[in-house]
């Protein structure tokens, strides 16, 4: 038996009088299907209130989470890509870049900035998946290299937030060179005694996993993030075996020793602050601490 029965027949509502829910008011979790208001979802830093599914967010959101009062200075904001190979797929590469810049409001797949996190200075590079799948081309590599140089110059810790489908095919070999370039810069950072925290978010794959994303003094990840080099289908075809359950999830990767810990986005800022307080004291502060100790001693 139906719950509602139409008493009168032939009722028609003109289209202009039909009431529709405005778009973007509600959020439906792709994992548990729970529905919450968009405002509450954003307040919860785009994690599901019910099952804690971490939704993909971009550099804008991560900078807002990490930098105090969302205050930061962006580095190399206007660096844009060339077209070294005259690459054309369904459209020429320069046209694709311009179209993506227009639709996303971003210049390329990474943004770098420095500012304060709970009062501690830090330099952060964060990738954006919306920009051609967060692919790593020359601009991404160069911006990360320059951000590392900025961290070295200012003697601040460096953090990388990765979210990438891998190297950018439209730049072929030029993309692959970015792996070596960023790795070399990170080696200099390490030699100079500055900490590097790498956070892998959903998804981190390909050449990014094979270079800077896995080179952190601390490699951390968000819950449920897909982390891998090749995709599961390619691996399955290569080894001719079924893959274990949960293969390439952050939890699986942690269990197999490739990650230091998994961090909830809502606890990220405090955990990073605690970690950096333990491992790093900036020289000026170090001298101050030493001299205050000396004063106490005398
Ligand atoms: Zn959910």
TrEMBL record:
Zn(2+) binds at residues 29, 32, 48, 51. GO terms for biological process: fatty acid biosynthetic process; malonyl-CoA biosynthetic process. Residues 25-294 form the CoA carboxyltransferase N-terminal domain. It is found in: Cytoplasm. Binds 1 zinc ion per subunit. Keywords: ATP-binding, Cytoplasm, Fatty acid biosynthesis, Fatty acid metabolism, Ligase, Lipid biosynthesis, Lipid metabolism, Metal-binding, Nucleotide-binding, Transferase, Zinc, Zinc-finger. A zinc finger (C4-type) spans 29-51. Residues 1-21 are annotated as: Disordered. Pathway: Lipid metabolism; malonyl-CoA biosynthesis; malonyl-CoA from acetyl-CoA: step 1/1. Its EC number is 2.1.3.15. One of its GO terms (cellular component) is acetyl-CoA carboxylase complex. One of its GO terms (molecular function) is carboxyl- or carbamoyltransferase activity. InterPro entries: AcCoA_carboxyl_beta, Acetyl_CoA_COase_Trfase_b_su, ClpP/crotonase-like_dom_sf, COA_CT_N. It catalyses: N(6)-carboxybiotinyl-L-lysyl-[protein] + acetyl-CoA = N(6)-biotinyl-L-lysyl-[protein] + malonyl-CoA. Belongs to the AccD/PCCB family. This is Acetyl-coenzyme A carboxylase carboxyl transferase subunit beta. It comes from Pontibacter fetidus.
């Amino acid at each position: 038996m139906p719950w509602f029965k139409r008493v009168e027949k032939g009722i028609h509502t003109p289209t202009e009088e039909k009431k529709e829910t405005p778009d973007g008011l509600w959020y439906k979790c792709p994992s548990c299907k729970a529905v919450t208001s968009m405002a509450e979802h954003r307040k919860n830093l785009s994690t599901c209130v019910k099952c804690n599914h971490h939704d993909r967010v971009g550099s804008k959101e991560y900078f807002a989470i990490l930098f105090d009062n969302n205050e930061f200075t962006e580095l190399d904001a206007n660096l844009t890509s060339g077209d070294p190979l005259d690459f054309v797929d369904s459209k020429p590469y320069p046209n694709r870049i311009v179209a993506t810049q227009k639709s996303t409001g971003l210049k390329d797949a990474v943004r770098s900035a420095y500012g304060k996190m709970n009062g501690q200075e830090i330099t952060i590079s964060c990738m954006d998946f919306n920009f051609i799948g967060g692919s790593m081309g020359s601009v991404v590599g160069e911006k990360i290299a320059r951000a590392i140089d900025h961290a070295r110059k200012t003697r601040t810790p460096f953090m990388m937030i990765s979210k990438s489908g891998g190297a950018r095919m439209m730049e072929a070999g030029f993309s692959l060179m970015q792996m070596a370039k960023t790795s070399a810069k990170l080696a200099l950072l390490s030699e100079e005694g500055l900490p590097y925290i790498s956070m892998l978010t959903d998804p981190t794959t390909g050449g990014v996993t094979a270079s800077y994303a896995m080179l952190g003094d601390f490699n951390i990840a968000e819950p449920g993030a897909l982390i891998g080099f090749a995709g599961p289908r390619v691996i399955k075809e290569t080894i001719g075996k079924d893959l274990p359950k949960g293969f390439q999830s952050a939890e699986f990767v942690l269990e197999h020793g490739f990650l230091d810990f998994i961090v909830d986005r809502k606890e990220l800022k405090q955990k990073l602050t605690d970690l950096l307080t333990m491992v790093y004291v900036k020289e000026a502060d170090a001298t101050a601490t030493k001299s205050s100790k000396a004063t106490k001693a005398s």
